């Protein structure tokens, strides 16, 4: 009986602390955009790709659920989005800033999964975007002491904090680590 009461109280505390961060604006978002209730718009970016294409992106985070990297990629695709990629260093740094400033992520977030993978063969390892198959064309803004390929088992890319007080940075992570993830919608802008 005591055990059941403890489980009840703990569940209540977990659920209510999560509720605190559901601001009125996200409730409004849920009411007015029922299709996107699983994801939250975390920010936008406008830039130019290395091939000179102007584009605008919106990033959507799976605020209310976590998943492994392979499933995350499929889930983004099934919502007509892609697991997030960053075409340039500027876009990668902009995404770091978006996570740095986000109060919900500050309180609850460790990592969000993004599209990059490594084959773990090289030293140093090379990183690729699976969407394009291209090598990531700039020096990734890693978190301190990353990538470390911990236990020789960190082939996918994430962005977040190693511990709660750290700055946000990129980090290699196991493919079977359940985390929130970032999908993107890209719009090409005609010059
Ligand atoms: C991103 O841009 C859209 C309009 O294009 C806007 O509705 C939305 O609020 C922006 N998101 C953020 C987090 O600023």
| CATH homologous group name | Mannose-Binding Protein A, subunit A
Helix content: 25-40%
What distance lies between the first and last C-alpha atoms, to the nearest angstrom? Answer: 68 Å
Molecular shape = globular
Low-confidence stretches: 1-35
Would you count the extended β strands for me?
Answer: 8
* Global mean pLDDT: 82
Radius of gyration: 18 Å
Whole-number total of structural domains: 1
Major β-sheet profile: 8 strands, mixed
Signal peptide: 1-17
Domain C-type lectin: 54-184
Protein name: C-type lectin domain-containing protein
InterPro entries: C-type_lectin-like, C-type_lectin-like/link_sf, CTDL_fold
Verbal overview:
This is C-type lectin domain-containing protein. Keywords: Signal. InterPro entries: C-type_lectin-like (IPR001304), C-type_lectin-like/link_sf (IPR016186), CTDL_fold (IPR016187). By secondary structure, this protein is α+β, with helices and mostly antiparallel strands. It has a single domain (40-189), classed as Mannose-Binding Protein A, Chain A. Helices cover 30% and strands 26% of the residues. It has five helices and eight strands. The protein has helices spanning 2-20, 24-32, 69-78, 89-101, 103-108, and strands at residues 40-48, 54-61, 82-83, 111-118, 127-129, 156-160, 169-173, 180-189. Strands 1, 2, 3, 4, 5, 6, 7 and 8 form an eight-stranded mixed beta sheet that branches. Strand 4 and strand 5 form a beta hairpin. The protein is globular and about 45 Å long. Residues 1-35 have low confidence and may be disordered. It binds 2-acetamido-2-deoxy-beta-D-glucopyranose. 2-acetamido-2-deoxy-beta-D-glucopyranose (NAG) binds next to strand 1.
